[in-house]
Fold Cytochrome P450.
Amino acid sequence: MSKMKYSRNVMCEVMRVVPPQQGTFKEFLTDFTYAGYTIPKGWKVYWTVNTTNKNSKYFRDPEKFDSSRYKDGEAPAPYTYVPFGGGRRLCPRKEYAWLVVLTFIHNVVKKYKWEVLSPKENVLGDMVPMPEKGVPIHLHPY
Ligand code: HEM
């Protein structure tokens, strides 16, 4: 996996631009003030990945898909790249998710040429992004 630098960079960018998980709820254990807003103890807030990952303060030209952002030595600063969350509740299975994703990519890319049948397919916004038609493809073995 550590040798799959290019694939990893591409997937990093996919997860930045279209995060598989949009965010989660957090409950405040104490009264909390942030940016002029006071949130009372016991309230819930929903934090979103996009508000950080599409913030031009952290990612230049944030709407642009550019996997070269993660080239060696150009890793995002801590807590600016958050598809897996951050801090104490960081996704505990993120390395397993990477293993599954990179193994899938390795097999598909090495064994098949693939043709996307609906290149302009819509991605529906929900708790998780869902391609409208399920991304039909034709696989042609090499
Ligand atoms: C691409 C795949 C995945 C993404 C993008 C993802 C993303 C996330 C995010 C954003 C959170 C919330 C972090 C927070 O609240 O601060 C989370 C939490 C969690 N994830 Fe994942 N996850 C993925 C795969 C998985 C897998 C494969 C598992 C289990 C096999 C898993 C198990 C969990 C659990 C148990 C939590 C709750 C952790 C806690 O509240 O302490 N995730 N994940």
